[in-house]
Amino acid sequence: MGRLNRLPTSLRQVPALVLAAGAVTLFSGFDWGLHGPQSTISAEGPVAQSQLNLFYVTLFVTAGIFVCVGGALAYTQFKFRARKGDENREPPAQTHGHPLIEVGLIVVSTLLLVIIAIPTVRGIWYMNDTPDRENALVVKVTGYQWWFNFEYPDLGVVAANEMVIPTGRPVHIELRTGDVIHSFWVPKLAGKVDLMPNRANHMWLQADQANYYWAQCAEYCGESHAKMKFRVISLDEPEFTAWVEHQKSDARTIDPAAAAAAASRPRAEFAAQSDATDIGFAGSESPFAYWQEKQAEPTPGSEDVDLITSGGEVFKQRQCIICHSIRGSAPGGNVGPDLTHFGSRTTLAGAALENTPENLHRWLIDPHEVKPGNIMWRDAYIESPSYNTKYAETLTAEDIDALVAYLSSLK
Ligand code: CUA
C-alpha cells in the first residue's frame, strides 16, 4: 500500500469505487437488461441451457485470458515506466525471448482451446440428435418472405406465425424455405438454424414450462426481414391435446344451425398462469394470459352477425381466397398463411402486429406500410399500378370493415 499512498487522493478511491459498484450490481438484483423476451441468457429449455452453458465456459476462459494478459501488460507498463532521470540511462539488455515462457504459453493456449472444444463438440452432437424420437412432436417449418408456416404432419394441423408445442417433450423441427434463406430462432429455447433453398435442415427444442415466447427470423431475407417474427407457445400436455383437436376442426361459423354444433366442439380449458416479468399486452396480465384469452369464443350475441357474414362473402369474392384458405368455409390457395383459426392468434402480418381489429384494419388498408414489399401488397399493386394508395382501391372501406369482423370471428 506504500505506493498507493503516493497517488493523489481521487485516484486512491478508484479501487474502492469499483468494488462498491460491483457489489451493488451483484447484490441489488440489477439484471443488466439481459432478461428481455428475446434473451438467450434466460434459457427455458435443455437445448438453450446447453448452449448457454457453453457460452459461459467460453466467457470464463476468455475472461481469464483477458485478466492475465491485461494484468501482465498493466503491471509491466507501470513497473517499467519512464522515470525522471531515465533519459541518460542505457537501455536494458536485449534478449530474444525465454524458451520456458514460450513453450509454456503454447501449452497453456492449447489446453484452453481443448477446454472450449470438448463442450463445443458435445453441444453440437446434443443439438443435432433429437432425443426420444418416437415420442417427439414433429413440426415442419417453412419460411417465406416474410412469415413462417408450421405444419404438424402427424397431427394433420397447419398453423402460421404461432407455433404451439407441448411442454417437457422434444420437438423435432424440419426446416425448409419456400424462397430465400431464413433463420429460425427462438432465443429462450434454442439457437439459430438456417432454412436453406434445396437443403433440408433440422433441429430440436423443448420447453420446460408453459409459456409464451418471442422469436424471429435471424438471417437477412429482404426488405421486411426485420418484420419476420413469430411466436412459440408451450402448453402442458392436456391443453396441447385440446389445442390440436380445435385446430383440426373447420373454421368457426356463426350460422345459427352451425353454432349449435360448434358449441359441442372440444375446447382447451386453461388454468390461470402468470408471467409478469415479460412484456405484457395491454389489458392482460401476461402475454401467455393474453394468448389464452384469444382462444375463448366471443360471448354469444356480442358479434355483428350481418357484418361477419358479409365479410365471409368479401373473402370469397375478392382476391383473398386466391392465396389464403379458411377450411370449411372458404378453401382457397396456400400461398399465404392458413386463416382457419386466425382470430385465436395473438399476432398478425408475420407477428409484426398484435392481432387487434384496429391493427387488422391498418394491415388491410395498406399492407405495404406494415410490411414493405410483401406479396399481398405487390399483387394488388400490379393490378392497378397507377395509384399509390396501393391496396385501398382494390377493397372498399366497407369491404375492409366486413373482413375485419369476419377474420376476427375465426376463433
Ligand atoms: Cu426471413 Cu429474415
Describe what is shown at a glance.
With 411 residues, the chain is of the alpha+beta class. The chain has helices at 2-5, 9-12, 14-27, 46-79, 99-128, 237-248, 256-263, 287-295, 305-317, 320-323, 357-365, 367-370, 375-383, 397-408, and strands at residues 137-144, 147-152, 157-160, 162-166, 171-177, 182-186, 190-195, 201-205, 211-217, 229-235, 347-348, 353-354.
Round the Cα radius of gyration to an integer and report it.
29 Å
Proportion of residues in helical segments: 40-55%
Run of helices and strands = HHHHHEEEEEEEEEEHHHHHEEHHHH
CATH topology of one domain: Cytochrome Bc1 Complex, Chain D, domain 2
* Structure classification: alpha+beta
Query: Which term fits the overall shape?
Result: elongated
Give the strand line-up of the largest sheet. Answer: 3-2-1-5-8
Q: What's the tally of helices? A: 14
CATH class of one domain: Mainly Alpha
Question: Whole-Å distance between the termini?
Answer: 72 Å
**Main β-sheet description:** 5 strands, mixed
CATH superfamily caption of one domain: Cytochrome c-like domain
Hetero ligands = dinuclear copper ion
The CATH architecture of one domain is Orthogonal Bundle
Task: Give the rounded overall mean pLDDT.
Answer: 85
Count of β-strands: 12
What's the arrangement of secondary structure elements?
Blueprint: H1 2-5, H2 9-12, H3 14-27, H4 46-79, H5 99-128, E1 137-144, E2 147-152, E3 157-160, E4 162-166, E5 171-177, E6 182-186, E7 190-195, E8 201-205, E9 211-217, E10 229-235, H6 237-248, H7 256-263, H8 287-295, H9 305-317, H10 320-323, E11 347-348, E12 353-354, H11 357-365, H12 367-370, H13 375-383, H14 397-408
Parallel strand pairs: 1-5, 4-10
Antiparallel strand pairs: 1-2, 2-3, 5-8, 6-7, 6-9, 9-10, 11-12
Helix pairs in contact: 4-5, 9-14, 11-14
